[in-house]
Design a protein that fits this description.
This protein has 156 residues and is of the alpha+beta class. It is built from six helices and four strands; from the N terminus they run ααββαααββα. The protein has one domain: CBS-domain (Roll). A two-stranded antiparallel sheet has the order 1-2. A two-stranded antiparallel ribbon has the order 3-4. A hairpin with a 2-residue loop joins strand 1 and strand 2.
Length: 156
C-alpha cells in the first residue's frame, strides 16, 4: 500500500504568525501553492490558504454593488457607486495588508504521520474537508501532503 512518505512534499514552505497576509499571499502566489503551515518555535500553530485570505479580504472589503434593473440610469448609478467602492476598496486593501497571518489562519490543524496510507489520508481529507495535511514525525514537520499528491499517487 502506498504511504504518505512516498508522496509527501519534503520541501515545506511555512509562514510565521507574525507575517502579514500580504507577505503570505505573495509567497503562496510566487510558489504557485494554495496553502502552507504556520510555524512558531518549530511548532505548527495553524494553516493559511489562499481561500482564507480571499474570505478575509471579502469580509473586510464587502462586495461590489449589484444592478437590479436594466437601463441607462441604473448603469450610471452603479458606476457612481463603483467609483466610491473602488476608493474604499483601495483604502481597505492598504489596511488589509497590515493584518497578520495569525488573524486569518485556520487554527484547527490535523497532522498526519509519514507511515499512514494514502487511503487513510484521503478519508481524513473527505471527513474534515481539508485539502492538505502537515506531516509530522517525532514532533517535527517533515512534509506536507495535498490533494494533488493523492492524484499523483494514482498516476504513478
Amino acid at each position: 500500500m502506498k504511504t504518505v512518505r512516498e508522496f509527501m512534499n519534503k520541501d515545506v514552505v511555512y509562514l510565521s504568525p507574525e507575517d502579514t497576509i500580504y507577505e503570505a499571499a505573495k509567497l503562496l502566489s510566487q510558489l504557485k501553492i494554495a496553502g502552507a503551515p504556520v510555524m512558531e518555535k518549530e511548532k505548527i500553530v495553524g494553516i493559511i490558504t489562499i481561500s482564507d485570505i480571499i474570505k478575509f479580504i471579502n469580509i473586510k472589503l464587502g462586495v461590489l454593488p449589484k444592478i437590479n434593473t436594466p437601463g441607462l440610469s441604473s448603469l450610471l448609478l452603479a458606476l457612481v457607486q463603483m467609483q466610491k467602492v473602488y476608493r474604499d476598496f483601495k483604502k481597505e486593501v492598504e489596511k488589509a495588508t497590515k493584518f497578520k497571518v495569525k488573524e486569518v489562519m485556520s487554527k484547527k490543524v490535523i497532522t498526519i504521520k509519514p507511515d499512514m496510507t494514502l487511503l487513510e489520508v484521503a478519508e481524513l481529507m473527505e471527513k474534515h474537508n481539508f485539502n492538505r495535511f502537515p506531516v509530522v514525525e517525532n514532533e517535527k514537520l517533515v512534509g506536507l501532503v495535498a490533494r494533488a499528491d493523492l492524484v499523483k499517487a494514482l498516476i504513478y
